[in-house]
Amino acid sequence: MTGTVAKARDALMTGSTTRSERWATVARVVPMMRWLPEYPRSRLRGDLMSGAIVAALLVPQSLGYARIAGVPVQVGLYAVPLALLAYAVLGSSPQLIVGPASTVAIVSGSLVADIARDNPQDAVAITSALAIATGIVLAAIGLLRVAWLAEFLSKPIVTGFVFGLTVTIIIGELPTLLGIPKPPGDLIGVLIRTLQNIGTTHLPTAIVSAIALALLFGGRRISPRVPWGLVALVAGVAASRLLDLEAAGVAVVGDVPAGLPPIGLPLISPLDLGAVVVGGASLALVALAEGLAATRLFATRGGYRVETERELIGMGVANVAAGMSGGLAVAGSLSKTAAAEGAGGRSQVTGLTAAVLVIAVLVAFTWFFEELPLAVLSAIVIAAVWGLMDLAAVRRYRHVRKADFVAAVVGAASVVLFGPLYGLGIAITVSLLAIIYRSSSPRIEVLGKISQEKAAWGRVRGHPNRLPVAGVVVARLDAPLFWANATAIEDRLLAEVENWPDTRALVLDLEATTQLDTTSADILRHLADELAKRGINLYLARVLHHVEHVLERSGFVEAVDQESHFWHSISQCVRAARRDTALEAYESRPHESVPAGDKAEADAQASSTADESGENGETDEGGEVEVEVEVLDEDPTDGDAPEQAS
């Protein structure tokens, strides 16, 4: 096969540059055309073996995830073959395995429960329609190049969201494990009523559940590479037949239709179309976050690069294919990709092999699952999702930054208390609010000279040995200036200069501002006017080129003297400020507002610094060492020479 493709490529590329460009275009649109012609046969055995292992994981997990999604078990299998084929053709990762995922399944099940109104036939159609809508949204995100939207879901929020989903899945499976009817109501209600009814536990079912859980969790610790889900499935079917567990009251899967997946569009009511589109967008966010995380992890480990937009298009088409074949939505799977890598899988031949084996199961072996105890299936689901409760990450967030810990807890609690769909909305809202809060309330640091370093500036707060400059307040914004925070920054800067008596100049470091809008430029002009009323001049240091253009077009530059108020370095800006305001010769010494005791100590440090400067370098008439680079603690180095901005 690879030889045929290579010949076709060579035929296209022979004879003219146009044909070569045409092949390159085809390869960009269809990534398979890049790797298939050069596929080394030495990889085939490893890819085939890993494909068999992936199929062994996919079959039991797909059955279980279909139950989570509230649809017949075969719907989970229907999603697999065409999704794997579509991703192999259009996906950018050579290793990623797509298939039904726990997070996607439970969000899908929650949406279906709201839309289908407990109608089993509608549930299957809506599940497939949701998969198609999910695929369209993912492909649109890739085509429009707005994949950056996914980055607004912070990792702590996603960790908490997945943690909450896992708790939801486990609580939802408890009645099946105990052999009692599943109570109606929300998650907390289900948990309370399950505990209240624990006295009615069906003993044979509970025993089957306990054995299956022990096999899955114990086996994983003994030999992690063994597909224990498949082992539990086969053992459960064997025990069910030998012991006639169904006659003993143990619930089993029942009839599973044999044959290829049905191909076509699902038939849903036009009244449900809006809910399906909105639900598809929600599922797309979940699939995007989970799939990209797996893709990037294995790209880093494998030393290759993936194209985010192409990746989203591949996942989108895979979801459309899953929905068109009567299946549920899919996502990139971390666990199955890891299993494939561990077994030697290095290309999408692994996924194609798994697709063929799942088709074989659908055509010839669905009868095997009919006597599978539902308790075993629930145990397989719980074992598959257990590792998603990342307690180590939550503890780390608490240690590193309490705000991240709170975000993770909010993400988990919102899912448990309000359900997956509303929980996702709350998680996204919290992420956006956190971004808005942090960007609208940036920290403003007053800078002073760092002793024993030439022209180096750092924050004064917490560093009493750093020396503010008499008559000049040097302020640094630790976040970009833009319309949402400009007024607050102006107010805080005006308050800051009031804290330093006898201030004659404010030097504002704008290096963190990479873009500027009209509102911010106008507020900077208003700040300059307000400072002028107080007898204070405004100077701007380290202004980026395109930011300066906005200031010019807004009229700010006309209001100030560009020749002396714009500088590439803080040191030159301070020197110009002191010269223009007729302050004493430049030196590093404390502001007049420093307490007397601290001032004496700081003056001694300044004298020491001046002595060292005289020994180690040339000084100008104001006493400052002329250097080419300015160093800031906690900030990037200013690589510009101390020259005037233009």
What would a concise description of this structure say?
This protein is mainly alpha-helical. 61% of the residues lie in helices and 5% in strands.
Descriptive account of the structure:
With 646 residues, the chain is mostly helical. The protein folds into 2 domains: 43-433, no CATH class; 444-616, Transcription Regulator spoIIAA (2-Layer Sandwich). The chain is 61% helix and 5% strand. It has helices at residues 2-13, 17-29, 32-35, 44-68, 73-78, 80-90, 102-116, 120-143, 155-178, 187-196, 203-222, 228-243, 273-302, 308-324, 334-342, 349-364, 374-386, 391-400, 402-418, 420-440, 486-499, 518-533, 545-554, 556-559, 562-565, 570-580, 596-616; strands spanning 97-99, 331-333, 444-449, 457-459, 472-477, 505-509, 537-541, 566-567. The strands form 2 sheets. It has a 6-stranded mixed β-sheet. Helix 21 links the parallel strand 5 (472-477) and strand 6. Helix 8 packs antiparallel against helix 14 (308-324) and helix 13 crosses helix 14 (308-324). The longest helix is centred in the middle third of the chain and has 30 residues, at 273-302. It starts with a helix and ends in a 30-residue tail after the last helix. The model is unreliable at 585-646 (pLDDT under 50).
